[in-house]
């Protein structure tokens, strides 16, 4: 909203906050029209120097450092340190909170297009616009995030490598790096490799204008999209949802440049399902009503119809799409439709050549199908605890069958498994499984894993008088505290 056009709270045009809304927010005076257009502030924002920004906002509004800190989710000493040049704001999630709270036009920091009109629907949030961006790219509308906006997320501008030619060995090297990031994310969580993966994507993008054969160009585009996909997943795993969406959308846009290549069709679907996974996860947090569930449904339906260069997706990936149909139905409490979709997934998967699975679909295994079915039952159990027994059976099988390298998935699934035991009326078993989950998640670098533990703690609260459950809740709190120490 910002940009001195309307009050973000009451809709009055011409200012960021009208006087009444400013007073309610703790501001002595509202920010005037054109506030962010002052040359000193434009220059500071361009360098992401928030010291002059904080000082100017407080001078204009009468805010104390403590009150400004409350608005931007920083403590008073941190605000003081920023204003005095003792601290800079580097983390994207922190910058996002500041520009949202103060209504700073993201374009002034190089984070996207100029100001957009106000939403007419309370649920038409940034999340909604990001979904529409992804859909527009997939459908060829040609709008939304482009390469320059992705560059804004990376450490420096794109520049040029100075290289005139690349070959198959260069693509193989990129694929090897991506595989390393993937294995790190799957085993340890996204926190350890997110920044490195995004930085590597920046370096790979600098090869975009290098000379190469048509086949190397195709392979390079797919390798770039795979790197963007895993970078997006790492960002998602540490709750950097906006960056994850941008990276996944960039991956899809890159794949649209590929013609008649089976890998591109499958990878496009995989990225689209990553977006759907994120939407379902956010829906489960209960922060956006049914908006995220509707987005997940649309994304999964879109994935069902994807072809690239006229080539359909593989049978392995088609079975995976069906599991997401099951998740969507389950999240809506539609048990029969969820069961039918999982049955369809199992039927398609049963007909697949397991030994001849495409390399890019190798993660679709018996253990993965067990997890998908268990997760659908888990989502249904939130509506009807009668489904918890099936969730326990399938999630337990996934935990048992995931091999080495899947520590993150096993840990998060253990947390859901403990919740399923609670819903099934087995708090003693839930406590045992929950301790395993807390230990495992505490050893990882995953903010989403911590959110899973918060869900487990909330579900365990009605049983808090039991000593074993009380011990579990203490363990969870200690894990959460230790993770942010």
Model description:
The protein is mainly α and 485 residues long. 64% of the residues lie in helices and 0% in strands. The chain is built from 22 helices and no strands. It has helices at 19-24, 39-46, 50-61, 65-72, 76-83, 92-101, 126-139, 147-153, 168-188, 194-205, 214-237, 241-255, 262-285, 291-304, 315-331, 335-350, 366-381, 388-401, 407-423, 427-442, 447-460, 467-483. Helix 3 crosses helix 5.
Short description:
With 485 residues, this protein is mainly alpha-helical.
**Strand residue percentage:** under 5%
Terminal CA distance reads: 35 Å
Q: Rough shape?
A: globular
> What is the chain-wise order of helices and strands?
HHHHHHHHHHHHHHHHHHHHHH
Query: What's the main sheet like?
Result: none
Structural class comes to mainly alpha
The DSSP helix count reads 22
Summed over residues and divided by their number, the pLDDT gives a mean of 81
Rg, alpha carbons:
24 Å
**Overall strand count:** 0
Which blocks of ≥5 consecutive residues have pLDDT under 50? 1-20, 112-145, 153-158
Helical content stands at 55-70%
